[in-house]
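Note to self: the last two entries modelled the partners one at a time, which told us nothing about the interface. This time every component goes in together.
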Amino acid sequence: MKKKPENSGFKVPQNYFESFEARLQARMGESGENLPTETGMAVPDGYFESFEDRLKAKMQKPEPKVIPLKNYRKYWVSAVSAAAILLLTFSLFGPGNNELGFDDLAKGEIEAYFENKDIELNEYEIAQVIPVDDLEVQDLLDDNIDREQLMDYLDESLEDIDDLNFSIDE
Amino acid sequence: MIAEKTLVDQLQNKDTQPQAFEVLVTTYKERLYWHIRKIVMVHDDADDVLQNTFIKVFKNIEGFKGESKLFSWMYRIATNEALMFLKNKSRKLGVTGNELQEQLAENLKADVYFEGDEIQLKLQEAIATLPEKQKLVFNMKYFEELKYEEISEILETSVGGLKASYHLATKKIEAFLKED
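The predicted structure of the combined assembly is written out below.
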């Protein structure tokens, strides 16, 4: 497709588009229809005069505090550490096996490895290995949320109550 | 009126920012209000969107590189804010964007801040039937009397495309008005 319409050979008279509305208006006038040039919309008295004050008030309103979720890595590391301890226990106290291997790594070394290295697991992958059935909301939060603070936050941030997905008996 | 370059410099300087922002608001509030109002139709909604627009401008002014005019940049923010507002509104009401537009035009009759006569009302109803882009272009060209080059910078569309949109919009409005 060619970019410019004039490349296709078609042309319009000079100032065709610029004078279009005038011609349209004239034509509509012939049929008794005059296109108004105003919208008819109005504003309350003194609206623009008081706008700055209202804007200032809105800008000075403190933003609701964002409460960070706990880092999932703690749980991930705990799960891996527990698995490592089990492996070590079996290798140390299990049936005779004197060769050194992965199982002989100290728990601290494994933990340090996961602490210091970026595991690059996303939330989905973490969710797949950590059972969430036994978790409570409080387990994921560093701070206990004050009920009043929570209500204020929901009041200010929630646009649609349906977003909460409450079932009727909740 | 203060030169745009000076105003931008003052807005990006922490010491002069508060005063410069007041100048900015005073200079542009009415133009931006009417631009937003024609999109969202309802005064209270327009007020909400206008305030959010200025807050966004204030928060992002440091990142303004001057690649477009300050005026165009603010218009672009206002347009996006208004369109986003309408999307959220239609989602909340559980209607499509087109249904919302029809409702808004219909509600104008009972709106205390609409003082238009029969033909002005009919024109708004006709505009409400237009696709989003054509509606924006028609309002900006016809009511706000912006130049195609200015609209092009705001909507980031070619002048040729805008002319086509405007032409189509006027044709549809003409047909709508003649229908009745």
